[in-house]
Amino acid sequence: MKKLLVRFARDEAGATAIEYSLIGGLIAVAIITAVRTVGTDVAAVFTSISAAI
């Protein structure tokens, strides 16, 4: 039982998976923010073009 607990305490695979998922989540938030900003800018350009026509 003691060996099992020691091996469990030394195992870092779960921590690595959590770190990768946090990094992935932050990248996803950054991408969503960038796409929303670009989408708003593009919509403004099309609006100004349609008003000029």
In short:
This protein has 53 residues and is mostly helical.
Q: Can you lay out the helices and strands and say which pair or pack?
A:
Elements (H helix, E strand, L loop, with lengths): L1 H9 L2 H40 L1
Residue stretches low in confidence (pLDDT < 50, at least 5 long) are: none
Radius of gyration (Å): 24 Å
Report the total helices: 2
Cα-to-Cα separation, first versus last residue: 78 Å
What is the percent of helical residues?
Answer: over 70%
Q: β content, as a range? A: under 5%
The secondary structure category is mainly alpha
Largest sheet descriptor: none
Mean pLDDT: 88
Q: Strand-and-helix sequence, N→C?
A: HH
Q: Per the principal axes of the C-alpha atoms, what is the gross shape?
A: rod-shaped
Number of beta-strand segments: 0
Written description of the protein model:
This protein has 53 residues and is mostly helical.
List keywords for this structure.
single chain; mainly alpha; 2 helices; 0% strand
